[in-house]
């Protein structure tokens, strides 16, 4: 239960029977009231504003005093209640969720409150869809019903703005209803507000772009919901079933829709229904239905849709129960292990626990090991030698080359999507576990847990007494957590046995800083693309890695476009063989201290500093390049670099130098007089000095003739 309140005291004679769900807005419970032989049910939505203490701390850090914070959250509470008054005014409409009552209980500190809203108990459309496919007649019924609700909204000059499956419900009488008026608009004002991803999925282009909009945005969203239902539960431009849908697929599909690309007809709709859906989803507002009534009339003209049977009547029950179908566990999942017993906690419904197992067993269990034998909570006892590794598969697959990068696989986080994680916290105990919990210990003895606190949506906790130990491979461990802001290792993540950290933070586009203190890399042999595509990453603290065994640093900081500094001066690189693309596209990086590097074993140096536009300080004069075979575009577009001392480079094994110094426009001297070009021909030095000042380039005139590639082709396009 939430807080310390007794719900039977808040709503007299009503008792909570079970938790139905929780999300960005709060929790929803089922309420029961017994009168004689009759059982009545309602839904209770519990919303806390602010959602957690971190929001208040953030406001204080921004300079707000306590009084202004109180006023801010109290204004949000008023707006929230105004939105529910809209639902009260619309009460009685068979296609709008019926509001019944509410209570507001202020917090003791005067900042915000808990809001308890009692309303009609219905089956969420998303729950119905989990076990059923809708026929065309049912889709038409849904469209007709929601149009009727929107007609009333139009009369009251109300724009819902968040029509999506999560806000559509199904009644016992087989009527579809919309709910949660304005909840998204209000919750977006809190710093802990909901993720907009679900909203974007059905959002009209003009809302997405922040332009002026009118009532047709609700028609657009309704049309897109119907498209989704008539297209195998896929929105436009996504690959058809049974292909898996990746985050990149979702992003590309959204971009195509927002750019106005013509939508293909839904795959499973008749020609007439497709015509209606595509008109509702027209990119230009003027091309859509001008009113919900106009769209409803077209839907009604398709045929007679009055005899639908979504479920059986349930007597005194006022809710359509979804059958408790449990997903078949994966062959290697803990559910298949002998004597597996899911964690049972009081106050958490067993069905919810089953769902959590699907969401989080692989999410956290796929790569961690936890203490089994106790140990104190002091740091001196963390990482004892008997902390076990519980699973091996990191769930990462795809191409390790440069063309395609790495693709996300659903194995690791399954239905708990990586891009919904905002923060990851490692703990050296599991004392604080509450909310959604799953036992991921090897022995299934609850010594190791993963949990998501319902008061902190988006925060994934992983803890076990004595800490958490990683398997030898950490490949892709945090990859594609695209909304991840921070990771707190808390000296509770043991990587002492790790040998591979490939793609560790790959594509974590919103990660701004990371503190690597306590991360043991003494046995790591490969850090290939470890931070690649961390577009927002500005600082990496405590990078004093033990790199003595690392052989591969390919693309380690590739596309870290916001990275301002990185201290690698003390790195032991004596065993490193590959450094190509290591700093590619680090366009904000000004200084790279490589003065202590031993590069005597490095073979690949191509694209190593490519597109480091801001780089002004780089000392490569001590580079041992005796083993290097490729220097293609090594310094290409280092436009701010004045000192490029390559006079000591041994190029006797280099077979490709094209584009090596392209656009090094600030270079004061590029001395290649000692370069050994015996393995090169014309195509291998093509445009090597393109866009450079010929007066600063020394020694190339002594190179042998390269067939038709004369010296001019080294500097320009040969025109």
How many helical elements? Answer: 14
Structural classification: alpha/beta
What is the helix content?
10-25%
Largest sheet: 5 strands, antiparallel
Low-confidence stretches: 1-5, 184-198, 304-405, 409-416
> What is the mean predicted local confidence, pLDDT?
77
The Cα radius of gyration reads 30 Å
* Outline type: elongated
Q: Kindly report how far apart the N and C termini lie.
A: 76 Å
Explain what you see:
The termini are far apart. Residues 1-5, 184-198, 304-405 and 409-416 have low confidence and may be disordered. The chain is 20% helix and 15% strand. A five-stranded antiparallel β-sheet has the order 1-2-3-5-4. It has helices at residues 7-10, 53-61, 66-89, 125-129, 136-155, 183-187, 197-201, 205-208, 216-229, 247-258, 271-280, 292-302, 350-365, 712-715; strands spanning 15-23, 26-35, 38-49, 99-106, 113-119, 123-124, 168-170, 176-178, 368-370, 397-398, 406-407, 423-427, 436-439, 448-452, 459-464, 468-470, 486-488, 493-494, 513-515, 539-541, 565-566, 591-592, 617-618, 670-671, 697-698.
Task: Compose a concise summary of this entry.
The chain is an alpha/beta fold and 719 residues long. The chain has 14 helices and 25 strands.
Salient structural properties:
719 residues, alpha/beta, 5-stranded antiparallel sheet, 5-stranded mixed sheet, 14 helices, 25 strands, 20% helix, 15% strand, elongated
List the helices and strands and how they pair.
Layout: H1 7-10, E1 15-23, E2 26-35, E3 38-49, H2 53-61, H3 66-89, E4 99-106, E5 113-119, E6 123-124, H4 125-129, H5 136-155, E7 168-170, E8 176-178, H6 183-187, H7 197-201, H8 205-208, H9 216-229, H10 247-258, H11 271-280, H12 292-302, H13 350-365, E9 368-370, E10 397-398, E11 406-407, E12 423-427, E13 436-439, E14 448-452, E15 459-464, E16 468-470, E17 486-488, E18 493-494, E19 513-515, E20 539-541, E21 565-566, E22 591-592, E23 617-618, E24 670-671, E25 697-698, H14 712-715
